[in-house]
């Protein structure tokens, strides 16, 4: 809504994972009206060191949410390697779906435009679109199978490092809680 002064209020939402649950922050901000092209952006930058990963809004093409991994101040070699391997896997996933979805949207637009031109209509029926969907899936079947195989391989390879990191973090929490109880005595 526009106020008498010509400013609008926006709600800025921030969602972060906090180890055992999600945290949602809402901030009201007053701003002047902006062009429709400008999307809501999270303005906060995560701290350089911390314990919580930040998850951003989905990419408009790939639909993959970017993750800003936090670096613990006492990060071990195993934790760093796991974090880097996770980031590589997410980037690989992002790249695949960005390329795939771009190709899909381009080919779909070409199909719709060609069909409209041939038939001389303004819209394409769902039945006609289903022909495109079927042919697109059939043409890309091999790529999807290769993607699934690689996805499983990458995620299974993360299991052992994830277990190592979980043990390291459990010992760290025990050590920190013991240090707090010793200081409190």
Write a structural description:
Helix content is 54%, strand content 13%. With 185 residues, it is α+β, with helices and mostly antiparallel strands. It has a domain at 76-184. A hairpin with a 4-residue loop joins strand 1 (8-17) and strand 2 (22-31). Helix 1 (77-119) crosses helix 2 (126-139) and helix 1 (77-119) crosses helix 4.
Summary keywords:
single chain, 185 residues, alpha+beta, two-stranded antiparallel ribbon, 4 helices, 4 strands, elongated, Apoptogenic protein 1, mitochondrial, membrane, transit peptide
Task: Summarize the structure in short.
The protein has helices spanning 77-119, 126-139, 141-157, 159-184; strands at 8-17, 22-31, 54-55, 67-68.
Strand content: 5-15%
Rounded to the nearest angstrom, the radius of gyration is 24 Å
Alpha plus pi helix count:
4
Question: Average pLDDT across residues?
Answer: 81
Shape: elongated
User: Topology as H/E string?
Assistant: EEEEHHHH
Q: What percent of the residues sit in helical stretches (DSSP H or I)?
A: 40-55%
Structural class: alpha+beta
The rounded distance between the terminal residues' Cα atoms is 56 Å
């Amino acid at each position: 809504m526009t106020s008498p002064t010509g400013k609008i209020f926006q709600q800025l939402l921030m969602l972060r994972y906090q180890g055992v649950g999600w945290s949602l922050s809402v901030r009201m901000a007053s701003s002047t009206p902006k062009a429709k092209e400008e999307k809501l952006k999270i303005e906060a930058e995560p701290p350089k060191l911390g314990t919580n990963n930040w998850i951003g809004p989905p990419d408009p093409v790939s639909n993959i949410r970017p993750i800003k991994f936090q670096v613990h101040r006492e990060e071990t070699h195993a934790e760093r390697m796991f974090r880097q391997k996770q980031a590589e896997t997410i980037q690989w996933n992002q790249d695949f779906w960005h390329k795939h979805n771009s190709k899909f949207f381009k080919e779909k637009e070409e199909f719709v435009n060609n069909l409209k031109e041939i038939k001389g209509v303004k819209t394409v029926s769902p039945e006609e679109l289903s022909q495109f969907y079927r042919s697109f899936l059939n043409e890309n079947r091999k790529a999807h199978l290769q993607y699934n195989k690689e996805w499983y391989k990458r995620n299974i390879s993360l299991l052992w490092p994830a277990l190592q990191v979980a043990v390291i973090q459990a010992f760290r929490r025990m050590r920190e809680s013991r240090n707090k109880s010793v200081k409190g005595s």
